[in-house]
Amino acid sequence: MRFFNLDNSTLANIKLPENKSKYQWFIPVVMGFMAFWAVCGFKILNPTYFGWLAANDDPFQHLIGWLFFKDSPWSFPLGLNPNFGLSISSSVVYSDSIPLFAFLFKPFAKLLPSSFQYLGIWTLLCLILQAVFSWKLLNIVSKSILVNTLVLPLFIFSPIMINRIGMHSALVGHFLILAGLYLNLRVSQHHRSLLWLLLIAICALTHFYLLALVLGLWLASLLDAIQHHQASKKELISEVGVVLGVLFITMWQAGYFSVGLSSVSGGGYGIWAMNLLSFFNAKGWSYLLPAIPGVESVLDNFQYPGIGVLLVLIFALFKPKTLRALLIQLAKTKLWFLILIIAFAIFSVSNYVSIGPVRLHFELPKFLLAIGNTFRSSDRFFWPAVYLLTLVGVAVVIKGYSKSVVIIIFLSVSLFQIVDTNAGWGKLKERLNKEIPLTERQKLKSNFWEIASKKYKKTILAPAGTPSINWRVFSLFSAEHQIGTTGAYLARVDSRRLSQLQSNLQNGMIDKEALYIIEPEALPSMLSGLDFDRDLLAVVDGYIVLAPGWRDCVNCDQAFIALNLNEFLRPTQIKQEIIFNKAFEINKDYRLNGWSKTIESWGTWSNGADSQIIIPLPKNAHAKTLTLNLRAFVNQRHPSQKVDIRINDSTSYSFSLSSFEDNKIVLPISPLSLKQGYVSLKFEYPNAASPKQLGLGDDDRVLAIGLKSVRFD
């Protein structure tokens, strides 16, 4: 059933060749190739050229994810990428490295250059297929090769697609959306199940958002087929089963399920929602149209279709009867498809409705918000509407205007589209072809790094985050030396495993096979696991490194000077109280693990079976003792609190406290503390208890001591 029921008499007098020629497909292929040359040039096809991917974190993420995957052994599921993130790793899906191409090229990894990227090849393929599937869509509304050729630039030079080049490579694959539109609008339903199956599987191996969009288009096609009896129930039920079964296997093998379900919902629905004026906001992609004030046009929240498309829609509006008839025909023949496009458009706006600078907000039920948070870049759901509006506008112009006017309109608007959008893609081409060196390589100059890459199996960045600070430097270093790293930038991270990594770092748990790169704020907690006699703690090329066992390594350069901790910890003075109450929150950096998050007016309670503090020795003064002023969690039901204290992982002392206030403990400063320049105290509480356990309220913190102050004498 044809929804674009165009009367052939409209073009009956136009003596144009019909697209029956078997060579017609050369036209979109050549035009797609020429568009790639115009927009990108050929430099990015060089598989060893990385410069165009170095400007931003996102393309660098796609590249590094592939480099790790390329050199890792095959795993099961196939898409797992264990060295990129280590304990928080997931798969090539979540580094947006286009699993489809990663799977195609990985078997040839040993034959490929060590520095090899396929993102340029993918971009070329995307522009060619953008032209091919646009051509197939245009065949639905026109049988004229000339008309289709003139219209094609409106789809190829689409700002919403081109704007992703060199930034989000997988999302350049808008041809998958066009293919989904084509499978909905084509007259024949021949091989529908097979074609949808292939399309959905390819989307799953490209990008999650494209998969979501095409799954929606498939569902609409399914419902329309049921409504119009285009296939038997048995055929459609079989199609659903096969598609969902193959989709599950594809997603499983690609690595979608490598993160917990709770981690998939990233939060932030509405942050990257579509502004209702963004369809008209060129902002840098037009010489003629200015930016609309108050409309953000970052990569997400950019829906400008190009001035040529806007002109086509204006011409279509001058034919209201034709437009109305076509929309009625669409509603009759493809109702579920139309409903889906509208639903996608509404979802793209989110519950934060923006009209220029004006923003309105309304609450959503929790289950809808959970869905929205999974697709927080909701503006992408407007892409199918952009292409459908373009196609509808083209169909109305073809049906509503005379033969000569049709040719003039499409020739003019396509020229406008190409020339005017050059305001955007011209700058893009300059950026893609600008030789940008990988400065990440230049930052590691010392011979330390080459030695370390042979001694250690992994790099761990502290504190742990997504992404970690300096992740680019050390992910590239690790990838090129084929060792693992936690310095990964991933679209989704398993929150439970990330918390465990953060806890390990905060508790100073040192992996002897790992090289640690530490930010100053994470240094105090890492010191608790440091062995000064065997490990190296130093600054190399401006980075704080902790190299376990370096002092014992025969082949390791021992010339590196140990780090002066007083440069990173707040200095102390002799006979000055270091207070830990709310008025002196600045001193909280001395507290490591095992303390209550709540800082009270008098000090801070311990929370758990152990805790730790680390305090630098006063400069220019010889401290002999450290006096602790403590509270103890004691009462009639809990008359004494046992406390074991270990100083710098060496000397140990045990105490039993029976007073709630004014517990003074005087500890000697050991020679080891003087050598290391700080005092590290590890407290253990054999009989710590919570008020709730003792029937003293609902406080379930496991309390032992309250840290009020310390003082060097």
What is this structure's SSE topology?
Elements: H1 26-39, H2 57-71, H3 99-105, H4 119-141, H5 145-156, H6 159-162, H7 175-185, H8 192-204, H9 208-227, H10 233-254, H11 261-264, H12 307-317, H13 320-333, H14 335-349, E1 352-355, E2 358-361, H15 366-374, H16 383-400, H17 403-433, H18 439-442, H19 448-455, E3 458-462, H20 471-480, E4 484-485, H21 495-506, E5 514-518, H22 523-527, E6 536-540, E7 543-547, E8 578-579, E9 604-605, E10 610-616, E11 625-632, E12 641-647, E13 651-657, E14 663-668, H23 671-676, E15 678-684, E16 705-712
Parallel strand pairs: 3-4, 3-5
Antiparallel strand pairs: 1-2, 5-7, 6-7, 8-16, 9-16, 10-15, 11-14, 11-16, 12-13, 12-15
Description:
The chain has 713 residues and is an alpha+beta fold. It contains 23 helices and 16 strands. The strands form four sheets. The protein has a five-stranded mixed sheet with strand order 4-3-5-7-6, with helices on one face. Strands 8, 9, 11, 14 and 16 form a five-stranded antiparallel sheet that branches. The longest helix has 31 residues, at 403-433. The chain is elongated.
Mean pLDDT: 88
**SS-based structural class?**
alpha+beta
| Alpha plus pi helix count | 23
Largest sheet: 5 strands, mixed
Query: How many strand elements?
Result: 16
Radius of gyration: 32 Å
What sort of overall outline do the alpha carbons produce when their principal axes are compared? elongated
Distance N to C terminus = 92 Å
